[in-house]
Amino acid sequence: xxxxxxxxxxxxxxxxxxxxxxxxxxxxxxxxxxxxxxxxxxxxxxxxxxxxxxxxxxxxxxxxxxxxxxxxxxxxxxxxxxxxxxxxxxxxxxxxxxxxxxxxxxxxxxxxxxxxxxxxxxxxxxxxxxxxxxxxxxxxxxxxxxxxxxxxxxxxxxxxxxxxxxxxxxxxxxxxxxxxxxxxxxxxxxxxxxxxxxxxxxxxxxxxxx
Length: 210
Known about the structure:
By secondary structure, the chain is α+β, with helices and mostly antiparallel strands. The protein has helices at residues 10-31, 78-82, 112-133, 144-151, 182-192; strands at residues 2-5, 37-39, 42-44, 53-57, 66-72, 98-106, 137-143, 159-160, 165-167, 170-179.
């Protein structure tokens, strides 16, 4: 299942939070050779802040098999700071109702069918979380192949923010926005067959229509 971890949840879910940093270390440093910070087998960067929320997929409540980081861009935006040339209309960075999704990864040691299932859960969680927060869009950058295979095949309609470019070893990286709307969630659930993927507390289940 998907759990959302913020700074408020660290005392209760420290095992999941640290497992998530360890997964990032394996996927981004060991497997993809990212030149980023690490400590004691955990990967982190300057965008891991008190404003960050972490979507983590775990079946045992201790070991994270997939994750992503979501942060309001007013508290820091990797796309704006590091890759502004990927965005044509930079006025989007001035908006207070936009979040950024980063550090999306799934344990590559898992079977393909399992990885596909986890990616669908995280993609659906983007929409559920965005609706819950009242966000208008979640932005980020990814290889174009992942934009299509993870998000669009899950039923999510994307808005490209600029043309694809070569970044590092990746030949086609593109910035995109996910408009957060109830019809997006309805479409994702129709395509994937998933129900609610984030178990928000009972009194927090009312999703905000964007």
